[in-house]
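Dear support,

We are seeing what looks like truncated structure output for some complexes. This example has two components. We would appreciate it if you could run it in full and send us the complete token output so we can diff it against ours.
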Amino acid sequence: MSMISVKDMCLWYGEHQALKNVDIEIPENSITALIGPSGCGKSTFLKTLNRMNDLIPGVKITGDIRYEGTDIFSKEVDVNNLRKEIGMVFQKPNPFPMSIYDNVAYGPRTHGITNRVQLDEIVERALRDAAIWDEVKDRLKKNALGMSGGQQQRLCIARALAVQPKILLMDEPTSALDPISTSRIEELVTELKEKYTIVMVTHNMQQAVRVSDYTAFFLLGELVAFGKTDDIFSQPKDQRTEDYITGRFG
Amino acid sequence: MLKQSLSKKRKGYEVLMKAMMLLSVGLTAALVLFLLAYVLVQGVPNITWELLSTKPSYLTERIGILPDILNTVYIVLATLLIVLPLGVGAAIYLTEYASNQKVVGIIEYAAETLSGIPSIIYGLVGMLLFSNSMGTCLMAGALTLVIMNLPTIMRTTQESLKTVPQSYREGAFGLGAGKWRVVRTVVLPGCVDGVITGCILSVGRIIGESAALLFTAGFAHAVNGIIDGLAAPGATLTVALYVYAKEQGEFGVAFAIAAILMVLTVLINFAATLVQKHFAKRRSL
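Here is the complete output from our reference environment:
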């Protein structure tokens, strides 16, 4: 079953068309990697799925984008609830300048959970799910900005998990991290797909091969290829896909 | 040969420039030191407990500046109480909510201009706007000072709002937080230092202001509580300084007040620096 289905989607930044007639079905409990050269529209596409592009003035979107069958731009959809269902992890770790605990509890508190015992449970579960509990359990009250970059990113993943989303959007989550932190996040992502649907933008093709089940290749705002990662990388149908994954341009 | 003469010329030039810069630094420092020393030497011997703790009496010809101290405190409190919500609110609206950048630009420009207008003009406007309707009283003075300090508070808060990283806002929006929650929990805590700095600067300005108050708040030296005090005319320290020096020829008292104001100014600047350091430390954590 597909969690997100996108039909004929176009997006403009003012006069500039950044996405052209994108059609894609994102399958449940899987990892979909979005690849393509810089400026190809993959991040823009990702940010449309939880309507983060709403924050940018001058963006126009047409087409049909459905999450579990509901048009995400329909008037009945509350954008805050949409973002609760479709969480996001950003390129640069961006923990809030507050304690580790308060960072993870921010989402649940936003959505009305104030009970201390309940919050404690949610925070612990989220931190365990993000594989960082053992490192931080003794310093939950410490400021999150004192952690290493890799830890901060896993904290941000925990923060996103704490609102119990169904989908996790990740915008190059490892590009600001060292190789060890990167491999930890990759392991984590592979584990998370059992419970969540993950859409991940990546610049790193090895990463796409290592972790993803499906791959979408964007070029100049077009979705050139989409399919099982193995198929895309072993027998690309489109010449442009082959050229890109074999490193002829990038 | 040519090389040598060039380097000689350059050396001479260098020495000359250095001398001139030293001279200007020396002159600046000397001026400040002279002013400080002059005021303190003239003023401090005149500061007595009696001066600080009594009100003036025409019967005994005693002069006391207690009412002026109290009036200063009242006017600072009243002004801040009104200007803070206004200024911070305006800053939040302009930075976080307003979508028409052209209008925002115009308002910002107006605010900058407003903070450069000579204070006596505020006094004149305040007199016509407030004193004519509510009488000459501290409250009329406070309201005038509100207009005067609004741009300062607004601009410092705005500048500090702009330093809150966009990634914090994105992070919070990404978790499904609404606009106001993002502002309240993520943006505002990040700009507390700006608000406090703006406050301290404003306190300095309020304490130092005389022209705008001459028109609006009056010259009385009665000891009142804060409510009665705000409803009655009253002189602040700077206004009292003017009155004692210019109209009563009491230069001893005037210098005593001047010394107190100088020390206050130093303390306020010191406090502003401390606050900034404190927050800079917290931020770099």
